[in-house]
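Propose amino acids for all 262 sites.
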């Protein structure tokens, strides 16, 4: 069984120069696929090039809620062009965020909804970011169509009570190594309740660095970054969290990843 990273950012300027190193390490570790998520117009072209250069990297293009206020006049046309020219690409990272300072849902929501509509039209794998806006996100998802294949909630930080209604709508819940940090015990109790057939695993690299015992790979000269190869450690964390043998977990996540991403 292989490892699969459901959400990362290899185009990030902090690690972009090291992608070849990362891909070689993927091969050694048995990482079969990694989904590279865009956040803004400046990185979409980089992601397209990564997807064309490496079979294990799956591109996803989207406008992040943090970036929505600064979007250019032609951002929709640019996204359509990228999705059309990369037919197996996903939609994301998109979403809602009430954590960021100065957030404005009146800007975020139309951006999110238009991209979600595009995912529905294409039945594309969509990766959704949500911080402190779970109730509103659920309202929006219940009020309109979602892709037939479902949708991914990346680094799921919602409540246990939200699991059932979101799963009913088609949600997959992705777990990052960040939740292995000691202070995240409350969220770990929620993650244990995720339906196994809706579980995915991610690094969100170069962000969401977990504790040292699950983050064995580090970039020389920048110890604070989350190395994408730490997907192996996140699997170990989730296996321990759920009390599952690692190989059993790998098989379940592989089934889920292929069902969702194709």
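Proposal:
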């Amino acid at each position: 069984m292989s490892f699969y990273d459901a959400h990362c950012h290899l185009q990030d300027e902090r690690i972009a120069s090291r992608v070849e190193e990362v891909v070689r390490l993927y091969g050694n570790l048995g990482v079969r696929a990694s989904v590279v998520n865009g956040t803004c117009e400046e990185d979409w072209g980089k992601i397209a090039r990564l997807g064309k250069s490496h079979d294990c990297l799956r591109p996803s293009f989207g406008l992040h809620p943090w970036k929505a206020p600064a979007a250019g006049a032609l951002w929709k046309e640019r996204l359509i062009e990228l999705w059309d020219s990369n037919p197996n690409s996903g939609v994301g990272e998109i979403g809602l965020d009430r954590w960021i300072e100065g957030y404005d849902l009146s800007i975020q929501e139309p951006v999110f909804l238009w991209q979600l509509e595009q995912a529905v039209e294409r039945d594309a794998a969509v990766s959704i970011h949500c911080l402190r806006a779970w109730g509103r996100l659920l309202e929006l998802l219940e009020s309109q169509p979602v892709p037939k294949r479902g949708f991914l909630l990346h680094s799921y930080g919602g409540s246990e009570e939200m699991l059932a209604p979101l799963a009913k709508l088609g949600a997959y819940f992705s777990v990052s190594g960040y939740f292995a940090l000691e202070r995240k015990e409350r969220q770990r109790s929620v993650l244990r309740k995720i339906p196994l057939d809706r579980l995915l695993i991610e690094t969100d690299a170069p962000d969401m660095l977990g504790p040292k015992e699950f983050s064995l790979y580090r970039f020389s000269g920048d110890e604070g970054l989350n190395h994408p190869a730490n997907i192996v450690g996140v699997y170990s964390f989730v296996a321990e969290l759920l009390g599952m043998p690692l190989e059993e977990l790998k098989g379940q996540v592989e089934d889920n990843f292929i069902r969702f991403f194709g």
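The chain has one domain: 3-261. The chain has a mean pLDDT of 97.
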